[in-house]
């Protein structure tokens, strides 16, 4: 049985596989960053088309052996060519490569030829899996099943969801990081346009309202499961990360709104916006009006409150000053009247 | 021509004894390793070329495979009893931990190498089935309280009644072991537990698995890899038979980190375990081999490096019971 399989594999080897070039110059410590994911990349490129995946080379150690994932049609050629399990089958590889004309060069061992690579690191592959998993959130919720389903659409086994040690938390954090990045991009774009003079600068209140509305609109496709996501974000081991995302979001919004304060205002403004954002999110979850109109009204009102409060605070300050000055004046008058001030 | 003769010779050798064959093929690879690309391979007869360790002894590689086979042949009937006695039942927790970390989704194919008596596979099937039951219960409960929208849509669409997502995904577990005695014990256990579907038993060598490429979602090897003559070959075979995205998991005895615990553990291993072996199973030497082979196995970091060298990514390990057992996991990406 094992012999038969070996024979088949030998046959495939004869058909030629992708180049398995052992680099003479590569460092023996290639890991992590330099490892490409040829299988995954190709699968992604070819859109789940079951065409030929190229065997990935293993790490650049000098005892590399070949991997045969090449799904050539099984050959009936059982001639007893010895199976080369040796390292650096350069002779065979070069012959095979010569026959393999249309095969893209995805051997990542080839230092310069990483063109076929879209995902060069584990992080990128994980990000891609999580993106694919977002499509399944409506079906499975924010769970590992969604991640497994996403991995399967990429042609990976469902077991690869084990890569995410935080499970659903990874998915949710990835999603909000993505949304925040999108928002920041849009705000930067608007800012550029204002700089170029192509657009009118918005007033602060309006800008804040638009920014928060844009950000919350990104939740709309997932709003049915969003309570689950919020509860995941509140788990103790996720709190540091979710707080970090929230604070950078609020900071970015204020920065693009034009806030450059360096005093206590910095804190008060961000605290206020955090409060607005969180409460609006909560309102949005249970909102059943058309296009979430109630939520936007709520947001408008809250921002008005803040603006009013800011105005009121200024008035109180100036009133306070005026009152203080008045009192001082009254005290001096009294002193004059009673003659204390006069030098005898 | 020479190659065909070589193949013929190999077939003859294999007919004689499977284990000797595996050691021969292993030896061929290792002898060709030192970057020499000569097309002609020296096929020296007599498996007495390279030596390796068998416990604290040094033996030739061919001999090691044979002796390991004999060890497990003799311990097979009392294997589970001895596991409980030696680890005071903790091995069940270790295996449960393996399943917990694996967290298999329904529909997954498991290959349990050196699975012998089938502990991991039984747990796997239990886990998957209970998960499926839980999902089924959840959908049933969700269907009991439909929202108004769902009711209204069910009026408009031609209703097929309450639809449960029929998961046509059956999980499978394949137990592979080089030793027929261990598989026999496992099969008897399966019969007594009443598990009939989703489980198959295959005789095979971890260094040369009788499976095609890209077959399995998860490959586990629990307390077996230290008995393999060429660990790197076993790792390469694991990479071969795993699907892309598949997971390799290895549960194995490893180095204890805490020095006090290490001393206690050493004392227990060398004083108690062979005695238990003699008393319960009537076999001192096998259990002496057991504890010695644990000492010879590389430590957590070295083994992690070996796994990465074989081509697996995202390799991590967890120490269980203070390092007595380590659970390594890697992905084929």
Task: Name the features.
heterodimer; A: 344 residues; mainly alpha; 12 helices; 57% helix; elongated; B: 333 residues; alpha/beta; seven-stranded mixed sheet; 9 strands; 52% helix; globular; mitochondrion (chain B); mitochondrion inner membrane (chain B); S-adenosyl-L-methionine (chain B)
Order of helices and strands of chain B: HHEEHHHEHHEHEEHEHHHEE
Number of strands of chain A: 0
What overall geometry of chain B do the principal axes of the alpha carbons give? globular
Number of strands of chain B: 9
CA-based gyration radius of chain B: 23 Å
Helix fraction bin of chain B? 40-55%
What share of the residues of chain A does DSSP label as strand, in percent?
under 5%
Helix-strand pattern of chain A = HHHHHHHHHHHH
- Tally of helical segments of chain B: 12
Give the terminus-to-terminus CA distance of chain B: 38 Å
> Helices and strands of chain B: which structural class?
alpha/beta
Q: Which structural class do you get from the secondary structure elements of chain A?
A: mainly alpha
Overall pLDDT level of chain B: 82
Written account of the structure:
The complex is a heterodimer of chains A (344) and B (333). Chain A is mainly α. Chain A has helices at 2-15, 38-45, 90-99, 122-134, 137-140, 144-153, 168-195, 204-217, 226-233, 239-257, 264-285, 293-338. In chain A, helix 8 (204-217) packs antiparallel against helix 12 and helix 10 (239-257) packs across helix 11. With 333 residues, chain B is of the alpha/beta class. Chain B has 12 helices and 9 strands. A 7-stranded mixed beta sheet of chain B has the order 5-4-3-6-7-9-8, with helices on both faces. In chain B, helix 10 packs antiparallel against helix 11 (284-296). Chain B is globular and about 75 Å long.
